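Much of our argument rests on the idea that a fold can be written as discrete symbols. In the encoding step, the backbone of a single protein was reduced to a row of integers, each denoting a local shape. We regard such an encoding as a compact summary of how the chain folds. The record that follows shows the chain in one-letter code together with its fold in token form:
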Amino acid sequence: MKDKIFSWVETHKKLTQFISTKENAQQDLIDLLKSVGIGPFNDKAGPGEHNIDLDEIDPFTFFCYIYKYGTKKRLKYLQEIAAKLNIEQPLGESGIPSAQAQKVWLFSYKYDRNNNEISRLWSLFNKELKDQITDQDFEDALQIRSTGKTKLTEALFYVNPEKYLPINGPTKPYLKEYLQIDPKFNSYTEYLDILAKVKDKIDIPFYELSYEALKWNNERKKVNYWIFQGNPNVFDFETALRDEILSDWTVSAHKGKIKTGDKVIIWITGEQSGCYGFAEVVSEPYEKTSSADDHSWKVEDKSALKADIKITHNIVDSPILKSIVDSREELKDLKVGNQGTNFSATEDEFESLLGLAIHKTKKQYWLYAPGENARNWEEFYENGIIGLGWDGIGDLKQYDTRDEIKKALVNAYGGKGSKKNAVLANDDFLNKIKIGDVIIAKKGRSELLGYGVVASNYKYDKNRTEYQKVRLVDWKQKGNWKLDFRLVLKTLTDITKYPSELKEYSTYYEQLLGIMELNNDLEKIDPMNFPLNTILYGPPGTGKTYHTILRAAEIIENRKIESYDEALEIFKTNLHDQIEFITFHQNYSYEDFIQGLRPETDNKSSLVFDKKDGVFLKIATDALFEYYKKSKSKEESISNSEIDLNEAYLDFIENLKSSDKKDFKTSSGSTIHISGYTKNDNIEFKHSNSARNYIVSTNRLLKLYNVYSDIESIKNVHNDIREAIGGCNTTVYWVALNEFISFIKSTSNKSNIDEPDNEKYDEIGYESKKKLLTTIDLDTLRKVNSNEVKKYVIIIDEINRANISRVFGELITLIEPDKRSHGTIPLEARLPSGDPFIVPSNLFIIGTMNTADKSIALLDIALRRRFEFESMYPKYEIEGQEIYDVNILKKINKEIIKSKGHDFQIGHAYFMGENKDLVHRMNKKVIPLLLEYYMNDEKEVKKILHTAGLTIEEDSWPLRITGTND
């Protein structure tokens, strides 16, 4: 070779020849990798923990194992392998693409390998050696899960770097921008066409071009950070953001520095000045042309240049106002408020504001006093509001800082104290409370009154005589709950992070809500009320997979499951039935997830399209079919019984009146009794320890029966009954419904009735389900309550790795709860095949994302808007489980947080399990992860290990600790 940095090419040729002899001795390849220190080789017999060894491997994955490491390490391993095989040892490894450390394999885990995946990869390898690869061979390899076009071109490059060029992250922009060659391809033939065009354009070997492309990308300027500032009197920025049409910005300064890829803080001036979003620059500045938002200009557009932007985080409905920014030390130098449109910012300022935005979007829980001694409670509940006093200081929007609020309070009410609680209450009411937050109303320090959800931004109502600072609230519960513990005295308190002292609750707000969600029988509400769309996020080893399995089992069982082993068994039993588990990757597409159309020729040689449904469409169809089954079951029940409900009710009342039975059991096992009947034959019930009568009306009971003709269909007494008939004493209605159902069953002539065949649909095939669903309209399906049908779960591991827009397409909107089958505005779409599609309300989506791979802040905004996010960060104490060497883990994470942030911490799972050997865990798991985090920066990793009190083995590489630590 002319240059030692490419001497690896000859090594690869010889290594490829060696590998070609090992198709029937694949363990030899695994052992060779192990012999030089490469690993791990953990396979899975089922979802969950790694529990078996990998015993088969393909040639491409063999190379990927070597190149998952950093520059020095992979060269060392390649040299050691060459030495063992007595072939030429390389002096460099420039131009070789890296394999993703957590996506090394070109195949799935053993439990998911069911179609000769590894044999098919060997077949592709052997055909490459003979120069016999066809489009069909290439397409077949792409059908293997964990294999995509990028990964496959890299794999072919590994085995023949003179013939192939990887079409990956570094080469795509190089080809497109530098060589003016479109890097897109869909077949092997199209891939070869690209390679031919490259050869025509540039006369260097592909392995050298791979290196040049990498250098070209690295030499491009680093990301700049900007503030794009706008005046709302000149342009209607808020409407443009809400309508999602803001796509460019005027450039009047820094026009030579603003470039594609730069990050932008969108700042709007005026009375409500603040950060309203974040964006990315997607074009260099250019001369002004027309835009979709031109109608938003309030004055003549005099700008000469503008740059296109892509909104990444739209927080127009929850902006970070200047009053918040001014209170943050790290934002004290933020260049906002001056005349102009473009100002420089720092990465720290950008990340700080982005962190505030993310924090603001999380639901918070507030304990609130509706006036002195709750004197305004009835009015606030009736009008659906909360109000704040201190009317003497007027509209809070006139104050930019807490200090200004404090001065106003002192001027209005006198005194010299800090007025800390009053300042906080007013500031929180204006700036912290947001739409979606939960308000828990209290009276004094020992009584709860109800709770609701915030439904509006802050308003100042001049028409009110008092409590003029208001927000709309959708009150969900009202009552009086006496407490045996003391509440905080303040008017308004953020209790989101308060822990609970009771074992059955993890947080204080859950404890308070749990108390209010007890009916008059102290019957607790079913706690299984998970969001339809959830993403669990956190660093590696924090239990995300563990919790997805537990969550999925609890959803389909609709009960709390304490044992993980039980949850895992439920998970395994229902996998590929009520539960699906998939992993996103960079090449995952709409065709994989929803539906693809493949061209074929029929017997007459005419072109037809064969549709292939993806995993999401399949499980969505299965879930929606549950409503069909229940609907048909109800129709058959009505047809068979031919009951006149009004007549049945009259008979039921007469039977009750003539019966000696007066006492009845509630769903929780306590007793209530009939105290009488009204002149309209409504039933009066009374609790055994109460003098109050509760009426069950005829009309509401029959309405309830039409929704729940089977008492077992009611899973949550409080919520299900109220959803069906509105506010009521759900306990007495449950008792009345139970007795009415029992009466109807007992009086039906069952010998002359064909029972509905509830099992006839259980074995029906997927295509038949699709056909049957076309025979029933959505309105009929919506008559079936979601609590009456089975629930389904799709788990999307590494959800952040895929291009969300490409995977979901236009259907991303349909996963929103209110757009689903039983939402308030159900939306139906047409698939590429023309089939109708709607996302059912009994399908739960659980995603996981590794924050060390991609920060939650960088997620596609379309995804962020439609999912609830649950953080999974390291724990240092877990009840009933042991975490070893907690102090060391804490010290390591403290150092990581300082240098890289919270998202790169080491998870507690690395310090749990059967192996208690600290040295083994550190050397085999933790240190390799640290080296990956810090790009093999030996100095930085050593610093972390020393700070944690660990002794490093002298002159070791990779770094190792000794067994003589304190």
